[in-house]
Amino acid sequence: xxxxxxxxxxxxxxxxxxxxxxxxxxxxxxxxxxxxxxxxxxxxxxxxxxxxxxxxxxxxxxxxxxxxxxxxxxxxxxxxxxxxxxxxxxxxxxxxxxxxxxxxxxxxxxxxxxxxxxxxxxxxxxxxxxxxxxxxxxxxxxxxxxxxxxxxxxxxxxxxxxxxxxxxxxxxxxxxxxxxxxxxxxxxxxxxxxxxxxxxxxxxxxxxxxxxxxxxxxxxxxxxxxxxxxxxxxxxxxxxxxxxxxxxxxxxx
Length: 253
Known about the structure:
The protein is built from eleven helices and six strands. With 253 residues, the chain is an alpha/beta fold. Helix 2 (55-69) packs across helix 3. The longest helix has 16 residues, at 152-167. The radius of gyration is 17 Å and the shape is globular. The mean pLDDT is 94.
């Protein structure tokens, strides 16, 4: 599997630093697969740039990075939440770029109701935290809706993400722009012409797990369900993700 590259995208108001060590953990588990993390404009290491108002604008920007940084032909894309929307549209427009796609905890307009795509508590939290100046309070509220584990892992993730809030703060305008772009995104009813695996967390408090189940049913796509994790599945259980991806590659690559 050493010639494979997985392009990895994060979700709303999160950037590449929020992967933590989990990308390396997944790479190690997959024995030589290279993971290329692309940064969405307006978040993470690109937090000083302006976010784009549409999914298509994000794709054109990210595809330029992809063409510059990726030299392999056996390419796949793995994307979380808002990143999953970008990945879906990318595969619609340029199916030749990827052999398979892995969508994690995502949702689409036209497939699921708005209050399932962005659950009421999560919507209120996002609108509040965008304007909270206290970095710890901001991150505590975000972790409360994105992390289901309330043990040592929660505290570990919270402390790490608080440091990232200080280093890579996202502006209120960029946060709202990303939310708006995600809510209005509506893909085709037809599945992209690329094999797709759906991964979903049963305890997702941001995007209801039914959203991923609806996509899987509409596309007749395989789905794997994590029984306990929350929205930020990669931080809660990257090993589980790696196991599903390895099995996926063995079956479809």
